[in-house]
Design goal:
This protein is mainly alpha-helical. It has a three-stranded antiparallel β-sheet with strand order 1-2-3, with no helix packed on it. The protein is globular and about 45 Å long. The N and C termini lie far apart (50 Å).
Length: 170
């Protein structure tokens, strides 16, 4: 066993194509979308100091989407990706939470990108929500069935962003 200290945004070893954010390294040879998402995340980390907070928020939103009903239909991708993850013997030793995180990682990165780079500069949470859901629909090529104020995206991102904007001295 080798213990390494990696930056908060580093979830895999690109050289060896292994997912390293669980108790067992999982080969990613058949998950190129995860490798691509890590490259995108590396680019975001170079430009933004708040990458860990954005990743944590994006992960919470995706977990709540999964628990309460998906506003955007990603079930087929996640099921196929999970099947590819579970095809490796190493994944049997990994918790279901870690497998779920790996399965949703590309979408978490897309959402973290939108948290760091909102599609609009408005301070109004409703306008931000509509612009963000439209951008998610575009990026995922799926219709985002807006849940409104009960959507974790609205509650966790749009409302908190409005509050944070009001607290900035200016």
């Amino acid at each position: 066993m080798v213990i390494t200290l990696s930056p908060a945004h580093q979830h895999l070893c690109q050289r060896h194509r292994l997912w390293t954010r669980s108790t067992q390294d999982i080969p990613l040879t058949n998950l190129p979308e995860v490798i691509h998402a890590q490259r995108r995340l590396d680019q975001l980390a170079c430009r933004h100091g708040q990458i860990q907070q954005a990743l944590d928020l994006a992960r919470k939103i995706v977990e709540e989407w999964s628990a309460s009903g998906m506003p955007i239909d990603l079930g087929q991708e996640w099921t196929e990706r999970l099947d590819r993850v579970e095809g490796h013997s190493a994944s049997k030793k990994v918790s279901s939470e870690d497998r779920s995180h790996l399965t949703a990682f590309p979408e978490i990165v897309v959402l973290a990108n939108l948290i760091l780079n909102p599609p609009t500069t408005t301070n109004d949470p409703k306008e931000l929500y509509l612009a963000t859901t439209a951008e998610l629909s575009r990026r995922f090529a799926r219709i985002y069935t807006a849940l409104g104020t009960q959507d974790p995206l609205y509650r966790r991102f749009c409302l908190y962003r409005e509050r944070d904007m009001r607290e900035v001295p200016g």
